[in-house]
Amino acid sequence: MLGLSLKESVEYGVIGVLLLMSVVALWASLERLLFYKYIKLVLYTNKTELEIDLSKNLTLIATIGSNAPYVGLLGTVFGIILTFVQIGQSGMVDTASIMTGLALALQATAGGLLVAIPSIVFYNLLMRKSEVLVAQWEILQENKKANKGGE
Q1: Separation of first and last alpha carbons in the chain
Q2: CA distances (Å), 93 to each of 48, 77, 97, 106, in order?
Q3: Nearest to 116 by CA among 75, 69, 76
Q4: Neighbours of 23 (CB within 10 A)
Q5: Residue 129 domain-assigned?
Q6: Domain that holds residue 57
Q7: Rounded to a whole number, what is the largest CA-CA distance in the chain?
Q8: Residue 150: inside a domain, yes or no?
Q9: What are the tens digits of pLDDT across the range 93-127?
Q10: Phi and psi for 4 in degrees, rounded to 5?
Q11: Tell me: the pLDDT tens digits for 20-69?
Q12: In this structure, is residue 54 part of a structural domain?
């Protein structure tokens, strides 16, 4: 291994997973925003097809938002376990090292929340935009029927 301790490996691993999750959530959110901006509702003739296209990647964003805190919590649990193992191996109770170890362990939970909160906010905003676009499409369809009926 690269000379990393087990604690550092776990910390980097968890932070790496959270970083990957944040990049994927950001990518999916930006992709949806651009899709919603440039969608042409008049090209859709089927509501189900429209809903499928509008909901693409939303599950991914929601999954990341709901699971990121658990990934962070897992990192915190590992960090606490490793802190206690270190204390047990040293045989000495040093308050400063315990507090430092616990504080570093809690970084993973904070990281998980930093990924989750924006992901859930984006998910909710995108879901609302999706619902609005479906409603606008339904209005277009009603107007088409009204125009055909009036001719």
Answers
A1: 77
A2: 63, 20, 8, 20
A3: 69
A4: 12
A5: yes
A6: 1-142
A7: 90
A8: no
A9: 778 878 887 888 899 999 999 999 999 999 999 99
A10: -90, 145
A11: 999 999 999 999 999 999 999 999 999 999 999 999 999 999 999 999 99
A12: yes
Residue 83 lies in a domain: yes
Question: Structural domain tally of the chain?
Answer: 1
Q: What is the DSSP secondary-structure string of the chain?
A: --S--HHHHHHHHHHHHHHHHHHHHHHHHHHHHHHHHH--GGG---HHHHHHHHHTTHHHHHHHHHHHHHHHHHHHHHHHHHHHHHHHHH----HHHHHHHHHHHHHHHHHHHHHHHHHHHHHHHHHHHHHHHHHHHHHHHHHHHHHHHH-
Which residue, among 52, 61, 84, 72, has the nearest Cα to 113 in the 3D structure? Answer: 72
State how far the Cα of 123 lies from the Cα of 125, in Å rounded to an integer: 6
